[in-house]
Amino acid sequence: MDKAYYVTTPIYYVNDLPHIGTAYTTVVADTLARHHRLKGERVFFLTGVDEHGQHVARAAERNGVSPQEWADRMVVHFTDVWKKLNISNDFFIRTTSPRHAEVARKFIQNLYDKGDIYPDTYEGWYCVPDESFWLPSQLVEGKCPQCGREVEILQEENYFFRLSAYADRLLEHIDAHPEFVEPEMRRNEVTSFIRQGLTDQSISRKTLTWGIPLPFDENQVMYVWFDALLNYISAIDYGIDDARFESIWPADVHLIGKEILRFHAIIWPAMLMAAGLPLPRQVFAHGWLTVEGEKMSKSKGNVISPYELIDEYGVDAYRYYFLREFSFGYDGNFSRDNMTGRYNADLANALGNMVSRVLAMVERYRGGEVPEPGSAGEETDAVLKQAAAKVFGEVDAYMEKLAFNEALQAIWSYLGAVNRYVDETAAWDLAKDPALAARLDTVLYNQVEAVRLTALLVLPSMPGTAEGIWRRLGFSDSVHVHHLPAAGAWGLYPAGQKASKGDPLFPRIEK
Ligand code: MSP
């Protein structure tokens, strides 16, 4: 069996509700997973929740319930919103699941037996919201250097992971496989951090009970990040089902936000090296979203729930907007005006109108039955076919680089070519002259075929729209059973099939 294409999102803390920031990574991961499935690859797409740690415990306490009850209550918000966003994850990991704990305990025991985990006394600072340890020298004006919030003094007997021993090997690995950390600016951040020297990491907590107990010292629980990172291998049965594990691991890409880079590009690979496991092919860190120019935060009251935007714009417009507007890897700003503008221009006009116009003409001139091409091709036909022949390769190349916005631009430039074809061939003029009936047949067929390819092109980013177009084209199967490159060849639309215009895919939104 070929190894599956394995893509992951971070597992989200259950102390907060999902918002457009957390949904961003998940939508991106889903699009990537669907793109690979469309190419006929076996895919394993993982997302889930991070349920341990001090700030989950504190959120539960504030709400007067046990951490487990809290997690059980919160997890539903994540599974619900992913369902609503049409997220096609193959598994949903919860770190409170017995399977996860079993794998995590085996993993840590193995490192302990190998001497990579040892007891020592920790004295330093802890940022609870970030679940991060800091040395006094790392604090900025006495606060967490990452988020600027208050830190707490922490002094306890902990177990430490010998991270320092892996610095050279990490640098060698990144040197030999620069694609391991993307984008380049993040890679530079990681290498300069490693070059400053790595200190061993405290990986257990004595004062906390909400976590996975260490197998070699039941009085302590695993540090939440050590536990959390292991989700990527516990979800695929590491140490439990070797055949399954080996058919999925290593991950092809861990998609993460830039603030958790250190954990994924330094600690995680070192943990894997210590266990003798292959490293993921890539860790890709994306930027952060701001809202109308400001950082999203509860205190500012500007946190946007995905539901709000889905209700306003629809699921596929939601997915499209975030993929198209943000350059993956960089920070970006969300604004309603901007989203409405894109919706009307790209979705209502370029895509939605084109599909309606084409199918309306088939209804009007041929009673909905898509004709066999009737005349020899002309220059305009060749131009359209060339655009169709080119676009799939372009999209694939951009997707390979995780350049989602560029992949969509390539698709929209193809839609531009289709719209030009519709204008230039002017079926409405051909329809006036019965002597041009054969030419009209050709033009109508080509337009419909161009729409069929459009469904395949938008499938990863807008799966519902792809299916909606497929239905209008009169297919009785699902668009999701088809694969590229075979289905992307020109001329596969079965002439004689009935198509219908249906409702507008993206009704215009008045500003
Ligand atoms: N539980 C850890 C991750 C463990 S992975 C082994 C965690 N969870 S989190 O709930 O805080 O979510 C982190 C992810 O949410 C980030 O990686 C990032 O992808 C996403 N984002 C949260 N706010 C964001 C924005 N404002 N913008 C974009 N993404 C942001 O960290």
Q: What topology does this entry show?
A:
Elements: E1 5-13, H1 20-38, E2 43-50, H2 54-62, H3 67-84, E3 91-94, H4 98-113, E4 117-127, E5 132-134, E6 152-161, H5 167-176, E7 181-182, H6 184-195, E8 201-202, E9 204-205, E10 213-214, E11 217-222, H7 224-229, H8 231-234, H9 242-246, E12 253-257, H10 261-275, E13 283-286, E14 289-291, E15 294-295, H11 306-313, H12 315-325, E16 332-334, H13 336-366, H14 379-400, H15 404-425, H16 427-430, H17 437-458, H18 463-472
Parallel strand pairs: 1-2, 1-12, 2-3, 7-13, 12-13, 14-16
Antiparallel strand pairs: 4-5, 4-6, 6-8, 9-11, 10-11, 14-15
Helix pairs in contact: 2-3, 5-6, 11-12, 13-15, 13-17, 14-15, 14-17, 15-17, 17-18
Residues 10-13, 21-22, 24-25, 50, 228-229, 231, 256-257, 260, 288-289, 296 line the site of 5'-O-[(L-methionyl)-sulphamoyl]adenosine.
Description:
This protein is of the alpha/beta class and 511 residues long. It has a domain at 336-488: Isoleucyl-tRNA Synthetase, Domain 1 (Orthogonal Bundle). The protein is 48% helix and 15% strand. The chain has 18 helices and 16 strands. Strands 3-2-1-12-13-7 form a 6-stranded parallel beta sheet, with helices on both faces. Helix 15 runs antiparallel to helix 17. The chain is elongated and about 90 Å long. The two termini are 52 Å apart. Residues 10-13, 21-22, 24-25, 50, 228-229, 231, 256-257, 260, 288-289, 296 line the site of 5'-O-[(L-methionyl)-sulphamoyl]adenosine (MSP).
